[in-house]
Amino acid sequence: MDAARRRSRSAGGRVGNDRAAETRAAGRRAVVVTAGTAILADLVLWACAPGTFAALPGAYWLMAALAVVVDARPYVLADRRASSVILPSICFTFAIALAWGFVPALAVQLAAVTVAGMRMRLPARRTLHLALQHAAAIGAAAGVAAVVSLRIGPRPDWDDAVLTVAAAAVWILARYGLAALVAWAGSERRRQRARKQSVEVLATAALLLLGPVVLATAQVGLAFVPLVLLALHAVHRMVRSNGESERAARVDALTGLPNRRALQSMIGEGGRERALLLLDLDRFRAVNDALGHRVGDRLLVEVGRRLAEVVPAHDLVVRLGGDEFAVLANRVDGAPEARRIAYHLAEALNRPFAMDGLPVDVTASIGIALQDTPDADCATLLREAEVAMYDAKQRGDQVAVYGPDAAHHSPDRLALLADLRRALREDAPDDGIMLFYQPQIAIATGEVVGVEALLRWQHPERGLVGPEELIRVAEPTPVMRLLTGRVLHNVVAQLAAWREAGTPLRAAVNVSARDLHAGGIADRVEDLLHEYGVPADLLQLEITESALMADPHRVLNTITRLDRMGIAISLDDFGTGYSSLQHLRRLPLAEVKIDRSFVLGMATNRGDAAIVRSVIDLAEAMGLRAVAEGVEDERTWRLLAAAGCHAAQGWFHARPMPPADLATWLSRYRPVRPGPTPLALPSPTP
Fold first, then answer.
1. How many Å apart are CA 483 and CA 466, to the nearest integer?
2. Average confidence (pLDDT) over 329-339
């Protein structure tokens, strides 16, 4: 397996280098194709109308030269891949079209567009698209000028001004009408973006209306024509200011990388054969705790820089927030290539980062979502990538690909998840989300020592949904944080009510691996305890062994903080996971809960009985409480008492019940102690 992974990473490195070389080669080809096409088109125009060009005055050639020069610095509203481009040359080419007609203006515009495309390193297709738009616009404006016999002289009148505005309006309609037509053939999201061009249209109109001013000035004296560059500079500052504001809204302030909004815009442009790779740094919280947040921020900057260095220019590196990054990889042919890219990114991060002379190792769990349709939205891809990323964490792997055919990604599960998310966000009193409580009994005395909060959901159509199904659906997604927040709030509020009623009880709440990895659960618990005035020792959190194995260092930091707050930590389902005794020794645990699968069989199976007794002995040796789940009969209860188990819960004592029923049960309950007569262990099963 390791050898295969090394081969995959090596292949990923070669793929990254090959993709970068391919990008450079494509850029060179674009320059050659663009320049060659423009020269050929101008030669054809010259050959078709040699007399027209020979008769043109010096003002034409001066404006033509200025048009080509100013397009060496085109106006870009945001990054050149996702936003429109405004060519300042239209100020001159529009004036040329009004004065000397379509063909001379088209020849200049083709040359100017070529310079702009080469300056921005646009693909030949994009440059051709810009040229066609401007050719259509110039043709429309020249047609209007010819129909109304518009000629701008040194002293234009009001009629000339009105007709010029009409020609400029036709120019704008022709260019953006063609762009809208192309967008209509693309995606719905491009159509939506095409309607949001107010700044672009305003700047374009300003440039066009400078055209007749330039033309009138040229007839007064050519020496005044270059002064229009000052006006062009003012328009450039306006566009640049808007572009900087737009870029600021699309850029992460810490790393300088594009942010979530930029990713949404990029995905909204549509396209196929793309993959979204979501990277979550492992054990980043440990770096913050050990070296401080300043060093942690510097590490995030370096991680972003290293990712940007190894990702080709046609792909997008994004910081989503916290220690999460994303890479939108274009031109990805299926899951195998996406995996190679992911391992290439992981290999780039494997080299230690030098922080104040101290090498810091960084690894990342990577989830991959493939964009199968052009109209896939950003939220869906992010959710799928996040599900895959948590799958990777739970399996202890580094890379996972989202698979819609998996059981937990089925349409039925996704529909249930959507209903649960809606119920949690609306937080209505009748949303059906409720908590039942099952008593925990001290075996030696028979007294109630606490309860466990168990989640239930009365779905309006599906009926009662149990906790196992809810957790399976919610845990790989951000909905788990909403669900945990609701459960914690309701439990702490119930603890406050019991305490005020004079019957304080300790309640145990299950928390998921996702909650512990996020790290914010400690702040949430602290705020709730302070809000309701509940002592910390009345709340206990239960974690599973799988949560420990996914990221033990991050989990250790979180539960250590909870322990210092006075929150007891219980290790749930002990014996069914993969944790080692080393984890038990290092973690600040208060108890271990013996899984019901062993407890249910201990009265009839000698192996289960031996496992239960061994866990109890281990807990006793480590100073931990041992709690048995699934106690359903008196014989099991007595066997646990003989083995020295501290507490038990199960149907033998009480089923889970709502708070009102629990109050009634507590008022009627009388402690019962096991008899002193030891019971024989079960005979070996055949």
1. 14
2. 84
Q: State both tokens at 280.
A: 């979550």
* Backbone φ, ψ for residue 398 (5° rounding): -100, -30
d(CA 467, CA 121): 55
Average pLDDT of the segment spanning 187-214? 62
* pLDDT tens digits along 455-475: 888 888 888 887 777 877 777
For 671-677, the CB contacts below 8 A with 24+ separation are 671/445, 671/446, 671/447, 672/446, 673/444, 673/445, 673/446, 674/443, 674/637, 674/638, 674/641, 674/642, 675/638
From 298-307, 334-343, 498-507, 627-636, the region with the lowest mean pLDDT: 334-343
Residue-level length of the chain:
686
User: What is the C-alpha separation between 303 and 288, in angstroms, rounded?
Assistant: 15
Secondary structure class of 627 (helix, strand, coil)? strand
What is the dihedral sign for C-alpha 520, 522, 524, 526?
negative
Strand pairing category for 591-594 and 625-629: parallel
pLDDT at 154 over 90: no
Sheet containing 364-371: which strands, arranged edge to edge? 316-321, 324-329, 274-281, 364-371, 399-401
Given a contact cutoff of 8 angstroms between Cβ atoms, the answer to whether 438 and 661 are in contact is no
Rounded to whole angstroms, the Cα distance separating 90 from 82 reads: 21
